[in-house]
């Protein structure tokens, strides 16, 4: 991936939580790392996010969740992606996520977790890494 | 004289002030101690609103509580009252804040998660059972739907036999900042503003002890604004509400004292204390000079100060207790009317009772053990603090002027200009944290790799939605549905005709109409906000 | 089944993949694109241009929703600028099309201009063909919104809607912008009635009625965010569609525009391929050196280099 082939990321805000500063900050960091970032906007449903992922042909889906509903949302999105034949699109999750939930999220099929206070370069790294693995 | 600076570290604040190594009497030369500083209780109230400050009026301590059902929340509130809590601050879940009933598909997984789930008056009654609403003041963080939650509170109080003039209720009711940072909006800005003013007007008439608007400019600060922007944007937002009320024919002295503020503190308590001092001065002067307020209560800025999870670290979470102590200190030394602290575990999730107790104790220790509130404005006269106050005042006034020249805050928010500044501020701040220019002990400096601190966390009960839906169905079955329909119809007519929305909302609430039913009606009249995604 | 067949069967995922491959310059994808071309003639391609903040996305969102509700298939290609510094991009137009997103019936694709001038990206034309082959009768293209230079959309669209706001008041700027010139429909969006009507008047005076066709460019008042005026605009769009179908005018104009857009892409492609070889060419290097040491003026230099290249191309033909 490079200049003519930038990583395309969908930054999603699923659920009712309206705190989108984190999602915006991460979007800006990904942009500054040369990626093309599509922002879903607030209050998106999992179905809407998956539809966007289908149409936008993204390499990675990023989700920002601060409402503590990360576990059920993760389950839903992974199953919806499977249903739409998009299981090869890795999902990276960020937000307020207790350490104890990280392994559980990965079990559900979330590729990487970047909890609150992860440095931006680590987020960029995580997104690049999972995008490469998608190939 | 020959002492060298140890490194090239920059000292100062993100709103532009460079900080000198030491402040001296020279720094007071430009400041008129009489005109700019004065005495506590004297205009422009730089040193505080009252001559005796906390000796005459103890500050309130808000412990933000609410989760699952009304009953669950009631138990938690009683636990805290038993340990010396004196005021309530109610957290609502997201479906309630957005007008979705517990059986709405969009509410799935969110019911009762970050606050108490309220569908009908019944839930409010359960939450406050056995709590005398005539004796306690209550803050409810509700914005887009303030009239509905206010009506529920009034109806609950009336059922307890409390007279309206004894009801002390704060509704946040600050919709403009929701469009910028918090995202709990429903209707577009203009109808939202009308809705906000309806609450002010109603309280002016019926509930004299209410604070119908608490401009939560702290939300802007915690998500990227600096201290000068926090004052400037918060005030511009407040003036938008004030002006909207004046445009409706209300008098400035009827409205101004009803508007309170919730600020957000970071850890440098000198900066934060100066912020409250500068803010009081600006508020007093503008209210007097521009708005022609005469009642001294209109000139006094009523401020709450608190912390937000943005200051906390997930690493070594017990250190957050120290952080919140500093937050509290900045607010108390700044002369606030109340404090609302975060709990140490809130970087993870909503707090456990133990964490809330520590937050309550922090405040009690500061006020009662350490005597931090014994003397009014103890920092007053400090070369540094006075200079800081003046500089912050200048920076805030400059920003206010810029917004006003560009067409005002409502326009700036509608066009996304504030959102853009906000997001960019947050991005810069994060970059500073990542580069350790801004230090977060234990999180970006002195990090202890591999060490885990296990703290007990609040656990969500996923059966809540089923329980809540059952209860909702029961209420719907038992209520007089013909009456509900009539009330909803009246509500619609009130929304369309432009009369004050409160009386018809109160009637609908008393008939046990659900939040979802009422919101749906209002959406059909007001429309829905479309987010202008801006970076 | 190959990608083109999947697209023709209406598979959005394949359409999205094919667009990505076209964006990346994949030659295999071009071969798929050829297979789709016969199926792309029924679509009305509507370009929407205008300065940043004029409300283009909101307007498209409303139009798309109305058309979806009528049962028509709708596609959107929304183009945002690429950051010159990082070559990344933030694509946020889609957020303003939330209603149509929620209706779930439109195909929306966000694209970055990838430093391409003119307010569109080279792959936009391919994206339009792919979305058209999905069976969408109406496709909107939203240009970057950088103002005056946003004119390339003219060559991608059958119809261009130019959107202004009353605040965009300076009449001279308006004329200079040239956006009016390419507009087949001109919209004054936002603003209260009085200010919008003033702007309407100012703009109407300057609307260029194109001599070569009989289409009269209408100027309309719209409040995109409330939906006011959308119905009238839809009626105009439909009238335009009928106009284009009459005597095959639309088809001819599209053929001409496609060739012009192709030539523009060719110009860029040829340049970027040739320029890479300049450092190795002794003659050209010498000319560049002479310009930097004031021995040659830049105009003569351009002429000499062009002659140099021309000769090589011509000799290759003999």
Number of helices of chain C: 13
Compute the average pLDDT of chain A.
Answer: 93
Q: Tell me, what is the CATH class of chain A?
A: Alpha Beta
Q: From the 3D coordinates, which CATH architecture of chain A would you assign?
A: 3-Layer(aba) Sandwich
Low-confidence stretches of chain C: none
CATH homologous superfamily heading of the largest domain in chain C: P-loop containing nucleotide triphosphate hydrolases
CATH topology of the largest domain in chain C: Rossmann fold
Work out the radius of gyration of chain A.
13 Å
Strands ordered across the widest β-sheet of chain C: 4-2-5-1-6-7-8
For this entry, give a set of tags.
heterotrimer; A: 135 residues; alpha/beta; Rossmann fold; five-stranded parallel sheet; 5 helices; 5 strands; globular; B: 535 residues; TIM Barrel; eight-stranded parallel sheet; 21 helices; 48% helix; 6% strand
Reconstruct the topology from this structure:
The complex is a heterotrimer of chains A (135), B (535) and C (318).
Chain A: E1 8-12, H1 21-32, E2 36-39, H2 46-56, E3 60-65, H3 70-83, E4 91-95, H4 99-108, E5 112-115, H5 120-134
Parallel strand pairs in A: 1-2, 1-3, 3-4, 4-5
Helix pairs in contact in A: 2-3, 3-4
Chain B: H1 33-37, E1 60-65, H2 70-81, E2 87-90, H3 94-97, H4 121-127, E3 137-140, H5 146-159, E4 169-171, H6 175-182, H7 189-206, E5 213-215, H8 218-222, H9 227-247, H10 252-255, E6 259-264, H11 269-289, H12 296-299, E7 303-306, H13 319-334, E8 338-340, H14 353-369, H15 383-405, H16 409-414, H17 417-434, H18 464-478, H19 481-497, H20 502-510, H21 515-526
Parallel strand pairs in B: 1-2, 1-8, 2-3, 3-4, 5-6, 6-7, 7-8
Chain C: H1 3-8, H2 12-23, H3 27-36, E1 44-49, H4 56-69, E2 74-80, E3 89-91, H5 98-103, E4 107-112, H6 123-133, E5 138-142, E6 159-164, H7 171-177, H8 179-182, E7 185-189, H9 193-206, E8 219-222, H10 230-245, H11 249-275, H12 282-292, H13 298-317
Parallel strand pairs in C: 1-5, 1-6, 2-4, 2-5, 6-7, 7-8
Helix pairs in contact in C: 2-3, 2-6, 4-10, 12-13
């Amino acid at each position: 991936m490079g200049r003519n082939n930038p990583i395309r990321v969908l930054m999603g805000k699923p659920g009712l939580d309206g705190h989108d500063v984190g999602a915006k900050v991460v979007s800006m960091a990904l942009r500054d790392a040369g990626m093309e970032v599509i922002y879903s906007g607030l209050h998106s449903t999992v179905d809407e996010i998956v539809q966007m992922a289908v149409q936008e042909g993204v390499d990675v889906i990023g989700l920002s969740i601060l409402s503590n509903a990360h576990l059920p949302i993760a389950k839903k999105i992974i199953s919806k992606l499977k249903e739409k034949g998009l299981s090869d699109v890795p999902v990276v999750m960020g937000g307020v996520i207790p350490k104890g939930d990280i392994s559980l999220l990965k079990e559900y099929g979330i590729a990487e977790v970047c909890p609150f206070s992860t440095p931006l370069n680590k987020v960029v790294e995580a997104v690049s890494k999972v995008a490469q693995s998608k190939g | 004289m020959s002492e060298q600076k140890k490194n090239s570290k920059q000292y100062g604040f993100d709103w532009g002030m460079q900080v000198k190594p030491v402040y001296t009497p020279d720094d007071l030369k430009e400041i008129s101690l009489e005109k700019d500083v004065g005495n506590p209780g004297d205009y422009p109230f730089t040193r505080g609103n009252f001559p005796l400050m906390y000796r005459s009026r103890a500050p309130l301590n808000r412990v933000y509580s609410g989760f699952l059902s009304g009953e669950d929340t009631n138990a938690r509130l009683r636990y805290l009252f038993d340990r010396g809590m004196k005021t309530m601050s109610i957290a609502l879940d997201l479906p309630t804040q957005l007008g979705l009933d517990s059986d709405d598909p969009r509410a799935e997984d969110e019911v009762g998660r970050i606050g108490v789930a309220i569908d009908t008056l019944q839930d409010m009654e359960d939450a406050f059972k056995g709590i005398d609403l005539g004796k306690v003041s209550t803050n409810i963080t509700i914005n887009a739907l303030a009239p509905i939650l206010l009506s529920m509170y009034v109806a609950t109080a009336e059922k307890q036999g409390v007279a309206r003039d004894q009801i002390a209720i704060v509704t946040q009711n600050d919709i403009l900042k929701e469009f910028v940072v918090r995202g709990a909006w429903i209707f577009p800005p203009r109808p939202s503003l009308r809705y906000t003013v309806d609450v002010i007007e109603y309280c002016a008439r019926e509930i004299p002890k209410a604070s119908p608007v608490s401009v939560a400019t702290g939300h802007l600060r915690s998500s990227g604004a600096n201290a000068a922007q926090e004052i400037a944007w918060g005030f511009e937002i407040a003036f938008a509400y004030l002006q909207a009320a004046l445009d409706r024919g209300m008098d400035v002295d009827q409205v101004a004292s009803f508007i309170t503020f919730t600020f957000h503190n970071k850890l440098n308590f000198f900066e934060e204390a100066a912020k409250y001092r500068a803010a009081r001065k600006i508020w007093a002067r503008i209210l007097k000079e521009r708005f022609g307020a005469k009642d001294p209560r209109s000139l006094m800025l009523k401020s709450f100060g608190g912390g937000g999870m943005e200051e906390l670290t997930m690493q070594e979470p017990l250190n957050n207790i120290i952080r919140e102590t500093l937050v509290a200190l900045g607010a108390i030394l700044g002369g606030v009317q109340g404090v609302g602290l975060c709990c140490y575990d809130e970087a993870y999730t909503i707090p456990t009772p133990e964490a809330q107790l520590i937050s309550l104790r922090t405040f009690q220790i500061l006020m009662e053990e350490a005597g931090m509130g014994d003397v009014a404005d103890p920092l007053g006269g400090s070369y540094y603090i006075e200079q800081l106050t003046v500089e912050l005042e200048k920076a805030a006034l400059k920003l206010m002027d810029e917004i006003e020249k560009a067409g005002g805050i409502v326009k700036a928010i509608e066009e996304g200009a504030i959102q853009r500044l906000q997001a960019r501020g947050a991005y810069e701040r994060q970059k500073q944290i990542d580069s350790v220019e801004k230090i977060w002990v234990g999180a970006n400096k002195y990090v202890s790799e591999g060490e885990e601190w296990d703290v007990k966390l609040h656990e969500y009960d996923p059966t809540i939605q089923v329980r809540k839906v059952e209860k909702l169905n029961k209420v719907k079955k038992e209520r007089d549905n013909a009456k509900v329909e009539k009330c909803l119809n009246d509500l619609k007519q009130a929304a369309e005709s432009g009369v004050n929305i409160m009386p018809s909302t109160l009637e609908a609430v008393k008939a046990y109409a659900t939040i979802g039913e009422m919101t749906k009606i209002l959406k059909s009249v007001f429309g829905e906000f479309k987010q202008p995604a801006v970076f | 089944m190959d990608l083109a067949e999947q697209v023709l069967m209406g598979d959005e995922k394949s359409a999205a993949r094919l667009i990505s491959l076209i964006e990346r310059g994949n030659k295999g994808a071009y071969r798929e694109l050829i297979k789709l071309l016969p199926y792309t003639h029924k679509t009305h391609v509507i370009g929407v241009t205008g300065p940043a903040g004029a409300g283009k996305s909101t307007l498209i969102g409303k139009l798309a929703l109305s058309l979806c509700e009528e049962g028509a298939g709708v596609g959107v290609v929304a183009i945002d600028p690429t950051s010159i510094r990082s070559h990344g991009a933030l694509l946020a137009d889609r957020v303003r099309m939330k209603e149509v997103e929620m209706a779930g019936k439109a195909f929306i694709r966000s694209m970055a201009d990838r430093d391409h001038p003119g307010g569109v990206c080279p792959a936009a034309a391919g994206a339009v063909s792919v979305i058209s082959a999905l069976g969408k009768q109406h496709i909107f293209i939203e240009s970057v919104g950088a103002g005056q230079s946003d004119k390339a959309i003219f060559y991608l669209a059958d119809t261009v809607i130019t959107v202004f706001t009353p605040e965009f008041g300076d009449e001279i700027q308006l004329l200079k912008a040239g956006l009016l010139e390419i507009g087949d429909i001109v919209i004054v969006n936002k603003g209260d009635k009085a200010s919008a009507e003033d702007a309407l008047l100012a703009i109407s005076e300057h609307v260029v009625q194109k001599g070569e066709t009989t289409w009269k460019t209408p100027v309309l008042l719209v409040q995109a965010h409330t939906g006011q005026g959308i119905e009238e605009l839809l009626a105009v769009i439909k009238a335009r569609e009928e106009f284009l179908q009459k005597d095959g005018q639309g088809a001819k104009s599209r053929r001409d525009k496609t060739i012009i857009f192709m030539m523009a892409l060719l110009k860029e492609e040829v340049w970027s391929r040739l320029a890479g070889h300049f450092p190795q060419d002794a003659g050209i290097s010498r000319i560049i050196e002479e310009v930097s040491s004031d021995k040659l003026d830049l105009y003569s230099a351009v002429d000499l280099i062009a002659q140099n290249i021309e000769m090589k191309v011509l000799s290759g033909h003999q």
